[in-house]
Each structure stands twice: as structure tokens, then as C-alpha cells.
Amino acid sequence: MFPRDFAWGAGTAAYQIEGGWQADSKGPSIWDTFCHEKGKVFGDQNGDVACNSYELWEKDLECIRKLGLTHYRFSLSWSRLLPEGTTRHVNQKGVQYYNKVIDDLLACNVSPMVTLYHFDLPQALQDQGGWKSPSTASLFDSYAKFCFQTFGDRVKLWITINEPYVCAKLGHEDGIHAPGLKEPGTTAYLVGHNMLRAHAMAWQSYDSLYRSKQGGQVSLAINSDWVEPFSTDCNEDIAATERYLAFSLGWFAWPVFVTGDYPEIMRSAIDAQSRKLGHKDSSRLPSFSKDEPSVLGTADFFALNYYTSRKVKPGGGCGRMMCMKSDRDAAEVLDPSWPICGVSWLAVVPDGLRKLLKYIKDTFNNPTVYITENGFSQLGPVEIEDVQRAEFYKDTILKVAEAIQEDGVRVRGYFAWSLLDNFEWADGFSVRFGLFHVDFADEMRSRTVYRSGQEYAKMILKHKLGK
Q: Has this prediction a pTM greater than 0.70?
């Protein structure tokens, strides 16, 4: 059903699980700063302790072993390793922590997939302009080289940046993620551009300095919904759907996998909207410099984060305000036949993942694909017997199998999001994605496997037994 070497994984992110926000000389990140301001996060909650994985790593390892995972995806906290964001000051306690995580995983025959950046920029770099500053790309490259040098002898799968779309839009246009900026219509494009530059620099560094000795692979994790026209026989809806894909998946995948530049439909829409609103100067969408290495080809696999699907039609609002929605001119709509899981934005559409995988194969030259995030949320009272989520995983993994067998998509791994209930960004602890429940009222943050975790473990074991 799946390739013998298929990666069965689960994922986490440093700020969401580690806690220890000031432990052992760690520097603050933008999420530390953001959460400590009133009114930014559900219930004014924060990740100061979270799952306390910094102190309770062995508990996490028990969960990983109980599931029988072959791979575990986690992120490094940039400010735990480099408190000031630069290699001038290395925090050896942070290095020791991640060395232990990696070594313990390998001792249990679990391969690490390591994410260098999962939303938590060191505050020291934000104070210097953050991702709006072109210089942050080269600082990220220095950080990446430090990590490759320090951990790359044991890590063979790297993600440079997780979901640059989310960081750019939610953090710099909508203001609901750190650093909480609301600068519509301009900053998100600049941030996305600098993140692509940062990724390309890090990939080029790995390729030229480390690949021959370490033999690893590097990519960036791109999030995308599957989208379809609201009405399949309406040309306006079809065109809106194409714009929507260009402004989400295409924004980051097109430069890396197709042309080395942004989708033409994105470029022309932004330029046209700018002229319409009286902006006649240079485009709000930056251009890649010919003086820097090309972003084209800077991915050894396609890392996909998929959660939900949408129907699309023209529209998007913003009125005369310059923003991404008015550039895109495409509104997303939920199909009423799709069940909603927990949070309002997450419709359960396993078949959407299969369709998206086929689209990626056809559009991006049939790359090797790792599904680096996919999950199902829970709200309200805790349900350890989470039957609906267990069925979701069965249905979704079946669709992945169909994509491999019937559509010829080269999927090489599936990572459930997430290993643990954790700090879910602006939703705090009110939303739970874990295969294990974490009791945040318990000082020891006890972990209890959900039924969905047990069922996922059975699916993994069945594969290992060749059934």
C-alpha cells in the first residue's frame, strides 16, 4: 500500500511545546513578546511552560515510541541556540538539549526531520527590523549553517522555514500572529520575499558546504488548502480559483519549483490593483535580484502542510484599502456538505488532500512529496475516545494511498499534526490537535494517548508488518 521506506511521523514546534522560555540563557522570541501583551491570545495564555518539553523530553520520547513512529518532526528554537540571533553568542545549553533529542531519537530508530524556523524569530532580530529587513535573510543563512554544522551529521531531513505564507499574512498583514503587525498590502509581500531569499541562501549553503559529507535533503514547508470553483461552469469562479492558488500555494512553490519568480497571475494582479488605487511607482511585490543565487531548484522534496479545502468565487473585500484580499480578488466559501472539525476554518475534506497531491504532481514537475502536517482539531470538553478524529486519520491515509497507487504521486511520508496537545498560537490551549492529550492543569503535564493516537499506531504497525 505504501513504499517500504515510507516515513510515518508526527510533528511539533518549539514554541508550542518546549516552555522553558527563560531557562538556561535562552533569549526571547517574538512569540514570547507577543503573548506577554494583553489581549493578543485566547485567555491571555502563553507558551512560557506549554507542554514543558524542555524538561520533560523523555515523556515526549515515550509517546513517540508508543506510536511506533519512524520519523519525528520538531523545530529548533533559534533564540534558544543563538539568544541574540547571531553566532556571536552560542548557548551551549540549547545545543546540549537538541543534541540529546536527536541522539535519543536515533537510539530508538526514529529519524529526525528538523525545522529551522517555525514562527519564533529572536526578538533581538525583530528589534532590527525582523523579516521586513533584507539583512535577516543572511542572518538566517548564518543560523542555518550553524545548525547544519552542529547537527547535520545526524539529521538527514531539513525544513528551512515553516509556512512562510502564515508568517507573512497573519503576522504582518492581519496582526493576529507575532510580531502582530497590521501593515496591509505591502509588508506581507516583503516578508514573504525575504523568507524565500533566506530559504534559498540556506539551501545553497547546504548544497555547497554540507551535502557531500552529510547526504541530507532540504526544503521549505508550504501550506495550502485545496480549492475548487464555487460553480464549475462559471468562468469568473474558475479565474478566481486560479488567482487564489497563485496567491497561496503558488506564491512560494512557483519560484522554487517552476520559474524562479512569482506566478505571472500574482504579479499582474498586484500591479493592476496598485495602478487602480493610484500607486504608479514600483510594484508592491518585490523582484528577485540577479546578484543573488536563484531560488529556482532550491528544494530536494515538496513539503506540504494540508488541513482543509474551500470553494472559491470572486470577491475578497478591503474596499479601497490596499491589502492582499483586494489584490487576489477571490473569496473562499465552505461547502455546507463538509463537516467542520473544531475550529471554524477547518472543514474535514480528506479527498481534498488527494486532489491537491495530484495538482502538485502535475504542476510542479512530479516532485517527491512529504506531507509535513495534517491534522484534526478538538474544542470544548476533552474526548479521549475521539472517534471522529480516529476515522479522519483512517480516511485521510487511505486517500494518500490512492494518490500514490492510482495517481502516481511520489509521496514518501506523512506527518500527523501533532504529537501533543500544545499551545495553538492565537487560540492558546483552547484548540487541541494532539495524538496525546496533555493535562495543562497538572504540573507534570501528564500525557494520555487519544483513541486517534492508538489507531494511528495500529496503521503504522500494519504497514511495518507488510499488511
A: yes
Catalytic status, residue 373:
yes
| Residue ranges with strand state E in 6-86 | 7-11, 71-75
pLDDT for 319 beyond 70: no
Are 9 and 416 within 8 A, CB to CB? yes
Domain of residue 18 covers 7-225+346-464
Cβ atoms < 10 Å from Cβ of 187: 20
Confidence class of residue 467 from pLDDT cuts 50, 70 and 90?
confident
Domain CATH for 358: 3.20.20.80
Which of helix, strand or coil describes residue 289? coil
Q: What tens digit of pLDDT does each residue of 64-113 get?
A: 999 999 999 999 999 999 999 999 999 999 999 999 999 999 999 999 99
Is position 243 within any domain? no
- Sequence-distant contacts of 384-392: CB under 8 A, at least 24 apart: 384/437, 384/448, 384/450, 384/451, 385/450, 385/451, 386/450, 386/451, 386/452, 387/451, 388/341, 389/341, 389/450, 389/451, 389/452, 390/450, 390/451, 390/452, 390/454, 390/455, 392/341, 392/348, 392/350, 392/452
Residue 398 lies in a domain: yes
| Domain presence at residue 43 | yes
Distance CA 458, CA 331 (A): 40
- Residue 212 confidence (pLDDT): 98
For residue 266, the cross-strand partners are none
- Which residues in 43-99 belong to E strands, given as ranges? 71-75
Domain total in the chain: 1
Residue 341 domain-assigned? no
The catalytically annotated residue of 373, 402, 424, 455 is 373
Q: How far apart are CA 398 and CA 336, in angstroms?
A: 23
